[in-house]
Write a structure and sequence with these properties.
258 residues; alpha+beta; Immunoglobulin-like; three-stranded antiparallel β-sheet; rod-shaped; transmembrane helix; Late embryogenesis abundant protein LEA-2 subgroup domain-containing protein; transmembrane
Length: 258
Protein backbone atom coordinates (compact mmCIF):
# COMPACT_ATOMS: atom_id res chain seq x y z
CA UNK A 1 0.00 0.00 0.00
CA UNK A 2 1.58 3.21 -1.11
CA UNK A 3 1.91 6.10 1.34
CA UNK A 4 0.54 9.47 0.36
CA UNK A 5 2.98 12.32 0.55
CA UNK A 6 1.75 15.90 0.80
CA UNK A 7 3.33 18.30 -1.65
CA UNK A 8 4.63 21.60 -0.39
CA UNK A 9 4.40 24.81 -2.31
CA UNK A 10 7.94 24.49 -3.53
CA UNK A 11 7.48 20.89 -4.66
CA UNK A 12 4.15 21.43 -6.34
CA UNK A 13 4.70 21.63 -10.07
CA UNK A 14 1.92 24.13 -10.43
CA UNK A 15 3.75 26.63 -8.24
CA UNK A 16 6.10 27.29 -11.09
CA UNK A 17 3.31 28.98 -12.95
CA UNK A 18 1.83 30.86 -9.94
CA UNK A 19 4.00 33.42 -8.16
CA UNK A 20 1.60 33.76 -5.23
CA UNK A 21 -0.50 30.88 -3.90
CA UNK A 22 -2.42 30.63 -0.63
CA UNK A 23 -1.19 28.11 1.94
CA UNK A 24 -3.49 25.24 2.60
CA UNK A 25 -4.57 25.22 6.23
CA UNK A 26 -5.97 22.31 8.18
CA UNK A 27 -9.45 22.67 9.57
CA UNK A 28 -9.52 24.06 13.12
CA UNK A 29 -9.84 21.65 16.04
CA UNK A 30 -13.27 21.08 17.49
CA UNK A 31 -14.43 23.94 19.69
CA UNK A 32 -12.40 26.60 17.83
CA UNK A 33 -13.99 29.06 15.44
CA UNK A 34 -12.50 29.89 12.09
CA UNK A 35 -11.02 33.41 12.10
CA UNK A 36 -11.49 35.81 9.24
CA UNK A 37 -7.73 36.33 8.79
CA UNK A 38 -5.91 34.92 5.79
CA UNK A 39 -2.24 34.36 5.40
CA UNK A 40 -0.77 35.12 2.03
CA UNK A 41 2.77 34.27 1.12
CA UNK A 42 4.54 36.68 -1.20
CA UNK A 43 7.97 36.09 -2.72
CA UNK A 44 10.73 38.18 -1.16
CA UNK A 45 11.68 39.78 -4.45
CA UNK A 46 8.24 41.48 -4.57
CA UNK A 47 8.32 42.96 -1.03
CA UNK A 48 9.36 46.67 -1.22
CA UNK A 49 11.08 47.86 1.92
CA UNK A 50 11.61 51.39 0.35
CA UNK A 51 8.80 53.23 -1.55
CA UNK A 52 9.27 53.05 -5.27
CA UNK A 53 10.80 56.11 -7.05
CA UNK A 54 7.45 56.84 -8.69
CA UNK A 55 5.99 57.83 -5.30
CA UNK A 56 8.73 60.42 -4.73
CA UNK A 57 8.14 61.91 -8.16
CA UNK A 58 4.41 62.24 -7.47
CA UNK A 59 5.00 63.91 -4.09
CA UNK A 60 7.55 66.30 -5.59
CA UNK A 61 5.14 67.20 -8.37
CA UNK A 62 2.39 68.11 -5.90
CA UNK A 63 4.84 70.14 -3.80
CA UNK A 64 6.04 72.14 -6.79
CA UNK A 65 2.46 72.87 -7.83
CA UNK A 66 1.68 74.21 -4.33
CA UNK A 67 4.81 76.41 -4.37
CA UNK A 68 3.91 77.74 -7.80
CA UNK A 69 0.41 78.72 -6.59
CA UNK A 70 1.83 80.59 -3.58
CA UNK A 71 4.34 82.40 -5.80
CA UNK A 72 1.59 83.50 -8.17
CA UNK A 73 -0.35 84.92 -5.22
CA UNK A 74 2.65 86.84 -3.85
CA UNK A 75 3.76 88.37 -7.14
CA UNK A 76 0.64 90.57 -7.63
CA UNK A 77 0.94 91.88 -4.04
CA UNK A 78 4.56 92.82 -4.63
CA UNK A 79 3.60 94.57 -7.85
CA UNK A 80 0.90 96.58 -6.09
CA UNK A 81 3.27 97.55 -3.28
CA UNK A 82 5.95 98.61 -5.76
CA UNK A 83 3.46 100.71 -7.75
CA UNK A 84 2.20 102.32 -4.54
CA UNK A 85 5.77 103.13 -3.50
CA UNK A 86 6.47 104.74 -6.88
CA UNK A 87 3.28 106.84 -6.66
CA UNK A 88 4.09 108.03 -3.13
CA UNK A 89 7.66 108.84 -4.16
CA UNK A 90 6.46 110.92 -7.12
CA UNK A 91 3.97 112.79 -4.90
CA UNK A 92 6.69 113.51 -2.33
CA UNK A 93 9.02 114.83 -5.03
CA UNK A 94 6.29 117.07 -6.45
CA UNK A 95 5.46 118.46 -3.00
CA UNK A 96 9.14 119.08 -2.28
CA UNK A 97 9.61 120.85 -5.60
CA UNK A 98 6.52 123.01 -4.98
CA UNK A 99 7.73 123.97 -1.50
CA UNK A 100 11.17 124.85 -2.87
CA UNK A 101 9.66 127.01 -5.62
CA UNK A 102 7.40 128.79 -3.13
CA UNK A 103 10.26 129.32 -0.68
CA UNK A 104 12.63 130.84 -3.23
CA UNK A 105 9.93 132.76 -5.08
CA UNK A 106 8.20 134.11 -1.96
CA UNK A 107 11.09 134.45 0.48
CA UNK A 108 9.87 136.92 3.13
CA UNK A 109 11.69 140.20 3.65
CA UNK A 110 11.53 142.21 6.85
CA UNK A 111 9.37 145.36 6.79
CA UNK A 112 11.18 148.70 6.85
CA UNK A 113 10.43 151.17 9.68
CA UNK A 114 11.18 154.87 10.04
CA UNK A 115 10.22 157.48 12.66
CA UNK A 116 8.31 160.50 11.34
CA UNK A 117 7.72 162.50 14.52
CA UNK A 118 7.72 162.36 18.32
CA UNK A 119 5.73 164.50 20.78
CA UNK A 120 5.26 164.38 24.54
CA UNK A 121 2.18 165.36 26.52
CA UNK A 122 2.24 165.77 30.27
CA UNK A 123 -0.53 167.10 32.49
CA UNK A 124 -0.26 167.72 36.18
CA UNK A 125 -1.08 164.62 38.17
CA UNK A 126 -0.97 162.34 35.10
CA UNK A 127 1.94 160.31 33.73
CA UNK A 128 3.54 161.61 30.53
CA UNK A 129 2.35 160.28 27.18
CA UNK A 130 4.60 160.01 24.11
CA UNK A 131 3.09 160.08 20.65
CA UNK A 132 5.30 158.44 18.04
CA UNK A 133 4.41 158.39 14.37
CA UNK A 134 5.93 155.58 12.30
CA UNK A 135 6.08 154.86 8.61
CA UNK A 136 6.16 151.17 7.60
CA UNK A 137 6.96 149.79 4.15
CA UNK A 138 6.27 146.28 2.92
CA UNK A 139 9.19 145.24 0.67
CA UNK A 140 7.48 142.02 -0.48
CA UNK A 141 5.88 142.44 -3.92
CA UNK A 142 3.98 139.13 -3.76
CA UNK A 143 3.21 138.74 -0.05
CA UNK A 144 1.04 140.55 2.42
CA UNK A 145 2.11 141.11 6.03
CA UNK A 146 -0.09 140.89 9.11
CA UNK A 147 1.07 142.18 12.49
CA UNK A 148 -0.48 140.55 15.55
CA UNK A 149 0.67 142.26 18.72
CA UNK A 150 -0.09 140.50 21.99
CA UNK A 151 0.41 143.23 24.61
CA UNK A 152 2.59 146.14 25.70
CA UNK A 153 5.64 144.73 23.99
CA UNK A 154 7.09 148.04 22.74
CA UNK A 155 9.08 150.59 24.72
CA UNK A 156 10.60 154.04 24.34
CA UNK A 157 13.90 154.71 26.08
CA UNK A 158 15.96 157.78 26.88
CA UNK A 159 19.52 156.60 27.24
CA UNK A 160 19.38 153.51 29.45
CA UNK A 161 16.08 154.46 31.09
CA UNK A 162 12.71 153.29 29.81
CA UNK A 163 10.34 156.26 29.78
CA UNK A 164 7.23 154.66 28.26
CA UNK A 165 5.52 151.40 27.30
CA UNK A 166 3.17 150.87 24.38
CA UNK A 167 1.46 148.31 22.18
CA UNK A 168 2.07 147.89 18.49
CA UNK A 169 -1.32 148.00 16.72
CA UNK A 170 -2.73 145.11 14.71
CA UNK A 171 -2.15 145.90 11.08
CA UNK A 172 -2.46 144.23 7.69
CA UNK A 173 -0.14 145.25 4.91
CA UNK A 174 -1.11 144.61 1.30
CA UNK A 175 1.44 143.20 -1.10
CA UNK A 176 3.37 145.33 -3.53
CA UNK A 177 5.70 147.80 -1.78
CA UNK A 178 2.86 149.46 0.13
CA UNK A 179 3.46 151.92 2.98
CA UNK A 180 1.36 152.75 6.03
CA UNK A 181 1.64 155.42 8.69
CA UNK A 182 0.67 154.50 12.25
CA UNK A 183 0.55 156.34 15.55
CA UNK A 184 1.77 154.69 18.72
CA UNK A 185 1.23 155.90 22.27
CA UNK A 186 3.75 155.20 25.00
CA UNK A 187 2.61 155.70 28.57
CA UNK A 188 5.11 156.70 31.23
CA UNK A 189 5.05 155.94 34.93
CA UNK A 190 3.01 158.14 37.21
CA UNK A 191 5.10 160.25 39.52
CA UNK A 192 8.16 160.16 37.26
CA UNK A 193 8.52 163.49 35.43
CA UNK A 194 10.53 163.99 32.28
CA UNK A 195 14.30 164.07 32.75
CA UNK A 196 15.61 167.60 32.87
CA UNK A 197 17.80 167.06 29.81
CA UNK A 198 14.71 166.19 27.75
CA UNK A 199 13.10 169.54 28.57
CA UNK A 200 16.03 171.44 27.11
CA UNK A 201 14.67 173.01 23.92
CA UNK A 202 17.97 174.31 22.66
CA UNK A 203 18.93 172.89 19.28
CA UNK A 204 22.54 172.38 20.32
CA UNK A 205 21.41 169.70 22.79
CA UNK A 206 19.34 167.21 20.75
CA UNK A 207 17.47 164.42 22.50
CA UNK A 208 18.56 160.83 21.76
CA UNK A 209 15.83 158.19 21.99
CA UNK A 210 15.54 154.48 21.30
CA UNK A 211 12.39 152.72 20.13
CA UNK A 212 12.06 148.93 20.56
CA UNK A 213 9.14 146.99 19.06
CA UNK A 214 8.36 143.28 19.30
CA UNK A 215 5.48 141.73 17.42
CA UNK A 216 4.62 138.44 15.67
CA UNK A 217 4.10 138.77 11.92
CA UNK A 218 2.45 136.50 9.38
CA UNK A 219 3.39 136.48 5.70
CA UNK A 220 0.60 135.35 3.40
CA UNK A 221 -0.02 134.78 -0.29
CA UNK A 222 -3.71 135.16 -1.10
CA UNK A 223 -5.40 133.15 1.64
CA UNK A 224 -2.37 130.96 2.39
CA UNK A 225 -0.42 131.74 5.55
CA UNK A 226 3.06 130.63 4.56
CA UNK A 227 5.29 131.95 7.34
CA UNK A 228 4.83 133.08 10.92
CA UNK A 229 7.83 134.84 12.45
CA UNK A 230 8.75 137.01 15.40
CA UNK A 231 9.77 140.56 14.50
CA UNK A 232 12.08 142.85 16.45
CA UNK A 233 12.52 146.50 15.47
CA UNK A 234 15.06 148.86 16.96
CA UNK A 235 15.20 152.53 15.99
CA UNK A 236 17.84 154.87 17.38
CA UNK A 237 17.08 158.50 16.53
CA UNK A 238 17.64 162.07 17.67
CA UNK A 239 15.14 164.92 17.77
CA UNK A 240 15.70 168.62 18.27
CA UNK A 241 12.95 168.97 20.89
CA UNK A 242 10.20 166.97 22.59
CA UNK A 243 7.59 169.70 22.15
CA UNK A 244 5.53 170.67 19.13
CA UNK A 245 7.25 170.96 15.78
CA UNK A 246 9.69 168.14 16.49
CA UNK A 247 12.25 167.46 13.81
CA UNK A 248 14.02 164.15 13.35
CA UNK A 249 17.69 164.96 13.02
CA UNK A 250 18.91 161.44 12.20
CA UNK A 251 17.82 157.87 12.74
CA UNK A 252 18.87 154.28 12.23
CA UNK A 253 16.18 151.55 12.19
CA UNK A 254 16.84 147.82 11.88
CA UNK A 255 14.30 145.01 11.61
CA UNK A 256 15.03 141.35 12.34
CA UNK A 257 12.91 138.27 11.76
CA UNK A 258 13.27 135.10 13.83
Amino acid sequence: MEERVAYTVGDNPQSRHNDVSPQLLLPPPPGHHLSSAFVVQVPKDQVYRVPPPEHAQIVEKHRMEAVAKKTKRKVPCLKYLFCLFIVLLVIALLIGAAVAVVFYSFKPKAPAFSVSSVAVKQNKGNPPTYDVRLKIKNPNPKMGVKYTSEGDDSKLSFGTKTIGWGRFPNLEHEKGYTADVINMKFHGDKGKPLPASMNDTRAKNPVSLTLDIESPVVFNVWILKLWRKDMEVKCEFRVDTMGEGTKILDQDCNTKLF
